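Q: May I have one protein plus its fold?
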Amino acid sequence: MSPDRLREFSRKELENLARRQGVPNVRQLRKQELIEALVSPSPSASA
């Protein structure tokens, strides 16, 4: 998903997506950091 599309999501929606993708410390990340974490390739996606 593109960063522009992710910016349309609420912070809570981004947190839920990040949790599902295994991003650690979701509650401590700012919205932009959540977007960056979701856009970057995750190690769990390759497993």
